[in-house]
Structure formats: structure tokens, C-alpha cells
Amino acid sequence: MPHTAPRHRPRWWTELMLIVVVYAAYSAGRLLARGNESAAVDHGMAILRAEKALLLNAEHPLNRLFTSTPALGVPADFAYASLHYLVTPAILVWLFRRRPARYRAARTWLMLSTLLGLVGFTLLPTCPPRLLDAGQGFVDTMAQYSSYGWWGGEASAPRGMGGMTNQYAAMPSLHVGWALWCGVMLWRHGRTPLMKVLGVAYPLLTTFVVMGTANHYFLDAVAGCAVMGAGALLTRPALRIADRVRTRFTAPSGSKSPIVSAGCETSAGERIPGQRTSSAGADDSTPATAR
Prior knowledge:
There is one protein chain. By secondary structure, the chain is mostly helical. The chain is built from nine helices and two strands. The chain has helices spanning about 10-30, 35-55, 60-70, 70-100, 100-125, 140-145, 175-190, 195-210, 220-250; strands at about 265, 275. Strand 1 and strand 2 form a beta hairpin. Helix 5 (about 100-125) packs antiparallel against helix 7, helix 7 (about 175-190) runs antiparallel to helix 8 and helix 7 (about 175-190) packs across helix 9 (about 220-250). The two termini are about 35 Å apart.
């Protein structure tokens, strides 16, 4: 049975608290799921070999393009370091304000997919292309162009804060997963052609950026999309469970007895309800049963 949307917009402060708690749990879990460096390198090399065998290795040409052309590489680094922190919350706020009936399902989808991504980081720590041996042919554009931005040589973290990020959390790419979620929201709920164009362009642009900057493999991007697909499938059951839990904890402890029993009604001029039942001698205008 399809899930029915809530009639009223959720309270903004409870939503903010929920998002903060989930994101804090995700960030903490991401740090704890660092994994073994040797295993992460092995996983990264296995992904690279699989891509070469399947002729999917688009990272090398894109990375060479970005490293040889600062006009592409520098904006790509800024996009990688900032857009997912800006665009994703902006679309959440837009849905909350303009599409409240769609907000709850969209928020649940995003959160479930993010937590599934955390499971991926834990089970499959993966060394990104930029951290592989230089002989593999990748250049870390974030390090190359670090003088242009606030990041250092350790992912997109601000200088001096590299130890607060898990550099082996490459599989799946939630940069791509979140961008896909944003794109779907813009396509579904945007009312102008421009918003629909942005809905297609943003996830595609993010995919090129994460590969060109050597932060993710193509298969990381595919896994990011798969995680979002799994989150979408789990959203409706999760909402049903949440509704049942809410109903159980907010339902009244006992039902109150009705003030007037069935069959009683008050007519004009009466102070108390009078019982009306059908009888053989009743006038036709008298109702036979209570309404």
C-alpha cells in the first residue's frame, strides 16, 4: 500500500536535530572505519585492474586533463571540496519549504543511503587513485593546486586537519551518490526547464570531478549510485516502521466512553438527548433509527 504523505510540514528544529545527529554519527563512523592501509591499497588495485579489463578506466585521461589544465583542475578541486556541503543541504531546505509533502521521504532516502555508504567504507576500505604508487600514473590534483584553496595534501580537509578524515573511504563515492539524490530531487520537483537541466548536469559533473581529481574510481561512482538505489528501495518500509512506532508511543492509553450512547440525539428545544426508536404508532416524520 502506498505511503501517504504527512499533512503538515515537520518541525524545522526537530529536522535540524535529526540531520545533525545522523551526520555526526556518519562522520564518527567514517573515522572509526579507517581500515588497514595494505588492504585498502589491495582493494584499490583490484578495482583498477577490473576497470582496465572491462575498458572502463576513464580516470587516467581525465586526471591527465585536469593536471595539465589548471583552468579545469582548480575549479574541479573547489567543486570537490565544497559543493556536496552546499548543494545537498540547500536542496533539503528547498524541499522543506516548497515541497513539504515530499520532504520526509526525500530526507529518509538520503539518510538511509548515507548510512549504507558507511557500511561500504567499513567492509571495503579502498585506497583512492591519488594515493596509489606514482607508478600507476595518477596525480593528486588537490595537492597540486592546494595553494589555490583551503585544502592541503590530504583529501579535501582544511590544512592541518587531514587526520580528521578517512582517506580510505573511497568505495562507494557518496559525492556521486548525494549528487544523484540532488539531481533526482531537481528533476522530480523542479518546475522549470533549467532545474531539470541542472538535475541531469550536476551528478554527471560530479562524476567527472571525482575521477579527474583522482579521488575516486569509476566503479566507486557506480557503487555510489547503487547505494542510492538501495536507499530508495528501503525508504518506504522505513517510513512505515517509523509511523507504526510513532503511533504506538503517541496513541492514548485508553479509549474514553462516549458521552451519549448510540441512538441518542438532541433536537431543538431539548436540554438532554432523547431516545428515539421506531414504534408501531410513531408518526412518519419521526426517524426510525438514530442518525
